């Protein structure tokens, strides 16, 4: 049995890549998915999760309804130009039926999963942090039983993808991000510093498609690549932000980490959602100051080999 993972996600293209990676990889056992708003609405996220579960026959995965709106009180902003109107590029899942709605679990099911797996459970958050922050507000002591938490988010002294300095998951609900960073223990952050370079090229996509194991990815990743290509003509492929975050849970040795305090800007303006870490090598921090593990670099060759092996069933 693989590592028990509870995934919090706003299932668009790269969340789908992560879900399929976890499904195909025997080292990972996804025990539940929390459907959040973010790339798309919560309703569309739920529909996409149900679509993927049925397409790949994942009956053991619990689907839990997460947050619909951020703690800022705003209406969330969606990004159809990145992931498509429905979140899966050009793919349009069938509208949900009443039967599909009954497949979802109440938010309280997260408590049951933590009680069931305790220190075996790893939480991976690939979308906005609203639902995860809610767990820390309601069940702070219980959350201490979770083995580890990985979040895809932040940009540390590299360009953001929403503002010049801010990454989308943090920008979308900086209040929630601040709560998670304040209370979480054993937290690993996989920011744009790493995820922007976790590139899947069109050639890789075509080879995966030809093998047939994960052929559903091609229309999604082709769509995704076209967005990135318009924004940056020099880019060589699609960055799979969420997949590399999930991969980090079983391949820590690929990454270069630093333990640092992290600050989130919650005020409005261009710096909203900025994540700040003091990387000055001579800086001395207070012994009791909260620190988190941040990935600043990774081994792309290892990523390539593992990703292609998992998605095709062939050894690379």
From TrEMBL:
<dbReference type="Pfam" id="PF01156">
    <property type="entry name" value="IU_nuc_hydro"/>
</dbReference>
<keyword id="KW-0326">Glycosidase</keyword>
<feature type="domain" description="Inosine/uridine-preferring nucleoside hydrolase">
    <location>
        <begin position="5"/>
        <end position="304"/>
    </location>
</feature>
<protein>
    <submittedName>
        <fullName>Pyrimidine-specific ribonucleoside hydrolase RihA</fullName>
        <ecNumber>3.2.-.-</ecNumber>
    </submittedName>
</protein>
<dbReference type="InterPro" id="IPR036452">
    <property type="entry name" value="Ribo_hydro-like"/>
</dbReference>
<dbReference type="GO" id="GO:0005829">
    <property type="term" value="C:cytosol"/>
</dbReference>
<dbReference type="InterPro" id="IPR023186">
    <property type="entry name" value="IUNH"/>
</dbReference>
<dbReference type="GO" id="GO:0008477">
    <property type="term" value="F:purine nucleosidase activity"/>
</dbReference>
<dbReference type="GO" id="GO:0006152">
    <property type="term" value="P:purine nucleoside catabolic process"/>
</dbReference>
<dbReference type="InterPro" id="IPR001910">
    <property type="entry name" value="Inosine/uridine_hydrolase_dom"/>
</dbReference>
<keyword id="KW-0378">Hydrolase</keyword>
């Amino acid at each position: 049995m693989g590592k028990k993972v509870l995934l919090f996600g706003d299932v668009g293209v790269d969340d789908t890549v992560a879900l399929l990676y976890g499904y195909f990889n025997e080292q990972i056992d996804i025990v539940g998915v929390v459907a959040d708003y973010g790339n798309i609405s919560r309703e569309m996220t739920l529909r996409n999760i149900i679509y993927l579960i049925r397409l790949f026959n994942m009956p053991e995965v619990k689907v839990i309804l997460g947050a619909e709106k951020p703690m800022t009180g705003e209406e969330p902003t969606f990004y159809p130009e990145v992931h498509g109107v429905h979140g899966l590029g050009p793919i349009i899942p069938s509208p949900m039926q009443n039967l599909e709605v009954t497949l979802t679990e109440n938010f309280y099911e997260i408590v049951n999963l933590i009680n069931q797996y305790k220190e075996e459970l790893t939480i991976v958050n690939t979308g906005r942090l609203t639902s995860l922050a809610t767990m820390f507000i309601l069940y702070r002591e219980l959350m201490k039983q979770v083995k580890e938490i990985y979040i895809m988010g932040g940009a540390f002294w590299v360009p953001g993808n929403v503002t010049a300095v801010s990454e989308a998951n943090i920008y979308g609900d900086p209040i929630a991000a601040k709560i998670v960073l304040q209370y979480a223990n054993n937290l690993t952050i996989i920011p744009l510093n790493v995820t922007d370079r976790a590139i899947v090229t069109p050639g890789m996509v075509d080879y995966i498609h030809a093998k047939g194991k994960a052929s559903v990815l091609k229309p999604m990743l082709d769509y995704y690549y076209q967005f990135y290509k318009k924004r940056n003509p020099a880019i060589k492929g699609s960055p799979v932000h969420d997949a590399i975050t999930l991969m980090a849970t079983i391949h820590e040795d690929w990454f270069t980490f630093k333990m640092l305090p992290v600050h989130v800007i919650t005020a409005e303006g261009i710096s909203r959602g900025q994540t700040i870490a003091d990387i000055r090598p001579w800086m001395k921090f207070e012994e009791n100051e909260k620190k988190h593990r941040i990935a600043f670099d990774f081994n792309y060759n290892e990523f390539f080999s593992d990703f292609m092996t998992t998605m095709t069933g062939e050894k690379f």
